[in-house]
Structure formats: structure tokens, C-alpha cells
Amino acid sequence: MPEPMLELKGVSVQFGTFLALRQVSVSVAEGEIVVLLGANGAGKSTLFRAVSGLERPSEGTIHFDGQDISRLAAHRIVREGVAHAPEGKHLFTEASVRKNLLLGAYVRRKDPAGVQESMEEVFDLFPMLRAKAGDAAGTLSGGQQQMLSIGRALMARPRLLLLDEPSLGLAPLVVEEVFESILEINRRGTAVFLAEQNAHAALKVAKRGYVIESGSVAIEGDRDTLVDNPEVRRAYIGV
Amino acid sequence: MRLPPARGVALSLLLLTAILFPLLVDNPYLVSVVITAYVTAIAVYGLDVMLGYTGELSLAQGGFFGIGGYSAGILMATYEVSFWIALPAAVVMTAALGYVIGLAALRTRGDYFAIFTLAVGVMIVIIIERWEGVTGGTDGLIGIPPPSSIGPLRFDSLTAQYYLVLFFLVLTIYVVWSLVNSLVGRTFVAVRNSEELARAVGIDAGKTHQLSFVISAALAGLGGALYAVFLGYIGPAMGGVQMTFMMLVYLMIGGVASLAGPLVGTLLVTGLMQFLQAFAEYQMMALGPILVVVIIFFPKGLAGLAKLLPERWRR
Q: Which of A117, B39, B69, B199 fits a disulfide with B228 by CB distance 3.0 to 4.6 angstroms?
């Protein structure tokens, strides 16, 4: 296996006396799609928040491209090439679709031509965003908001995209559409780290994954290992 | 950024009215009321930058208004510095103090930020009152001269001072308008919308708050300096907490986060207060119910109402 692009070693995150993540070690290689499976409250979002600098690990290291980013401020980490689409379609709801995308490219504000290019790429990926470019983000449907949230993260031109539960609250057909676009994003060269409860959909696109339970990694392996694991089948696929 | 033509026409008409006002109204008292409203409005725009766009309520705005006023007043009355140097100096001084206070105050958010800045506002008044050797204490500072003339332009008449203040008001509105339509302004709104999301897209939320707070203080300083020079004397009350709350009332009635709001609110309420002056201390009792009615029926203020109307027409 090549040197991983993102590597967490023994990362713990503590909220008061509650240990949300305990000694978690996971990695994502260049160009990979990796899934992080787990129930509500297992620590998926906390792990992503630690990577993107919104939460400080109490121990452990987080390396991106060989550099320890565990003490960097969130805005610096975006500049390093990690973009985060947080759980629950976080958007600037009052602002238009276009402005949401522009704000997503905030770290590239000195490169308007490149930003325009990325905007076109996002519009190609999600054509309905082009049609709704002038509408307030809050008026979009759930699936459209999810696509905007992903598009907004892509505007930072990340090398690693953190997607926190993109299927949350979406109809099955829309979930399929969103995962289709995740594959397309990956084909264009961006590594994707995906947190999901919907193992069925997630394991169709990810080659490798981790199952996280009560803050620690319980199972890890490639797609087949996970699909065949009785624990995973019972808890996340429902067979 | 271009204005839609209808708005452009409306703005030109408003500006024309403002320019013709002292020529048409032969009432020095009324003109001086409007001048006071203009200088206060400048500080209210500052309050709106912080509250309306960045989403944090600063209750030190009256204090910064006082710092601007006393900085300009002391420089001009005590040290006989020209207005044209004292004015920018007062703005810079207020902004610098805003920066330092912001370093501490902006470690808090929301209610705690409001309470912290309220305490700062109270401290500023106390300092002004007690630092008698410099500020004149509770007696106030008197003998602030009018701006010195530049070439043929003299500023000792009321009309000339009106235009001077109007110039700075228009400048303030232009600066705030450019700001809110710039990428920097969008980062302010992004931070108000969700600080966490703003951080996730790479915005340095701390720096954004700090910048907004400094701009807000600088505008209070500008308004305060003009206020001191126009009145010719100032007392500690100009930096008081009541001043802050009056500014907040102007902003709420006019409309938060709208370009017209601060001016509309300040003019209307100042005018109303003059009208109610006959009732002396009871005028505040009238203001209370008006504020309640506005908040219930027009939560976005009167400027919000004006925005709402054209939408209704279109339907």
C-alpha cells in the first residue's frame, strides 16, 4: 500500500469527561474512496471534525501529506486540501446557490479564473445547481441541498473530500444519484472519506472501510470483508 | 456591483432632498436636529456592521462614540489641533482601542459578548468621568472650535456644517454598501449564518469578527468626533450606556442588516423624540410601546417593511 494521504494515529477526542473517540487509527490513500460506518453517536462526525480542525484531539496525531495537521486551525486545513461537507446539509441558507459555491472557494479567492472554472465543473456535475444558481439555498429540496453542500466543498478544490452522511434523510432514488456523483468526483481524482449509516449504498462505491462503535474502530477491511462480516450484515445492511 | 435603475433614481432623489434640505428649511433648530441625527446614524451603521452582518451585539458602541468625541474634542480644544487632523486621529484611536478590546471581548460570543461589551461601555464612561485632568470630568469639555476652513470653504455656519456631516454620512453609507457587497462582507454574513460552517469553508472566523468589530468601532469614532465638533461641547453622557441603547432602538426600528435601516431609524426616532419633547421625561414611555409594536409587526424594522411592499405588489 502506498504512503497514505491522510493518516490518524491513536486519535482521541474528549468532551468534558466523555471520550467521543478513543485511540482511533484510520487512513485514506490518494484517490481512494473509504467508508466509515457507524450508528448515530458512534463518533463518525467527531472523527471528521477532528480531521477538519473543528475539534481538537486530546491525544494522537493526524497527518495529511506527511504534515501533522492536528494542531492547525480549521481555515488552514482547508488550504492544505481537505474539504468537509458537514452532516445535515449545512448551507448558508439565506445566500444564493452561486454565493454558497463562491464561499466554498473562499480559500482560493485570489484566483477568480480558477474559481469560475471550478464552478463550471460543479455545474457539470450537478446540472440542476446551474438552473437554480440565483435561488436561495434554503429553498432547494433535500437532495439538491445535499448536492450543493458537496459542490460547495468541491469549490475549495480539495484533494480529500470528507462527506458526512450524504444520504441522510434522502429518498432512495436521490441517494443513488448522490452516490453516482461521489463516484464521478473520485474518478476526477479526489479522494473521498465517507461517513455513512447506509452501508448498502456506501459499500457499492467504497473499496475499503472501517466500522466505528462507541468511539473506537471495531472492524476494518476491504469491501468484501465488510460485506461478509456477520456483524456488519446484521447491524448495517439488515440481512 | 450595479444598482437597479429604480433604486438608483430613488437614491438620487433622496440625496437631492438631503442636499436641498437646509436651503428649503429656514429653521436652524430643525437643521441642527437633523445634523445630530446624521452623526448618530454614522455610529448606528457601525453597530449594524457588527449586529446585522456579523451577528454579534456590541453594547460598547456608545462608549466608542464617546472615545471618538473626546479624542477629537481634547485634540482640538486642549491642544488646538486642526479638525482635519483631529478627525482622522480620533477615528484611528477609536479603531485601535476597538482592536485591543476586541482581542478580549471576541473570546466570547452571543449573550456573553453583549454582556462583556456592556461592561466595557460602562468602564469607558467611568474613565471619562474620573479622568478629570484630561476630559474635564462630569463638567464636560467645552470650547471645541468648528472645523478650520480649507481655502475658500468655511465651516462656521450651520449650513456648511450640515453639508460636512452629510458628506461623511454619505461616505459611511457608501463604505458600508461596498463592504457588504464584497467578499469580506459575505464572510461577515457567513460567520453570522454559521460560524462553524464558515470555518469549514476556510474562513478565519476570529479574524472576521475582529475586522468587523474594528470597522464598527471606527464608525462610532467618526460619528462621535463629528458630534463633538458640531456641538462644540461634550459631556460623559455621550459615551454612556443610554446612548448605546438609543442607537440600538434606532437600529431596531429602522431595520437590522439593511442599508437604509440605520438612517431611517435614527431620523424617525430622533424626530419623534423632538416632537415628544413637550412631555419631558415621559417621552421614553411613548418610545417603549412604539418599539414593541415595531418588533411585533415589523421584526425587520421599517426598512424591512419597505422591502416587503414591492414583493407584495409583484404578486
A: B69
Contact B288, B202 (CB under 8 A): no
Nearest-angstrom CA–CA distance, B206 and B191: 10
Contacts of B197 in chain A (CB under 8 A): 86, 90-92
Q: Is B184 part of the contact surface with chain A (CB cutoff 8 Å)?
A: no
- What does the alpha-carbon distance between residue B235 and residue B137 come to, in Å, rounded to a whole number? 8
Beta strand spans in chain B (E):
none
Given this model, what pLDDT does residue B314 score?
A: 45
pLDDT digits (tens, 9 = 90+) for B93-145: 999 999 999 999 999 999 999 999 999 999 999 999 999 999 999 999 999 99
Contact indicator for A72, B169 with CB cutoff of 8 Å: no
Q: Side chain identity at B194, as an amino acid letter?
A: S
Residues B193, A92: C-beta atoms closer than 8 Å: yes
The pLDDT value given to residue B254: 92
Around A20, how many Cα atoms within 13 Å sit in the side-chain half-sphere?
A: 18
The set of cell numbers assigned to B75 is 485634540
All residues at 6 or more sequence positions from A29 whose CB lies less than 8 Å from its CB, including other chains: A1, A2, A3, A4, A5, A191
The rounded mean pLDDT for chain B is 91
Domains of chain B plus CATH, in order, are 27-314 (1.10.3470)
* More reliable by pLDDT, B288 or B249: B249
Q: Are B138 and B73 in contact (CB under 8 A)?
A: no
What are the structural domains, with CATH classification, of chain A?
A: 29-52+76-237 (3.40.50.300)
Nearest CB partner across the interface for A84, out of B186, B200, B204: B200
**CA B4 – CA A200 distance, rounded (Å):** 51
CB A6 within 8 A of CB A28: yes
- Whether the complex's predicted ipTM is more than 0.85 is answered with no
Q: Cα(A228)–Cα(A31) distance, rounded to whole angstroms?
A: 25
- Rounded to whole angstroms, the Cα distance separating B298 from A67 reads 52
Residues of A in contact with B189 (CB under 8 A): 92, 94-95
Query: How large is the average pLDDT for residues A147-156?
Result: 94
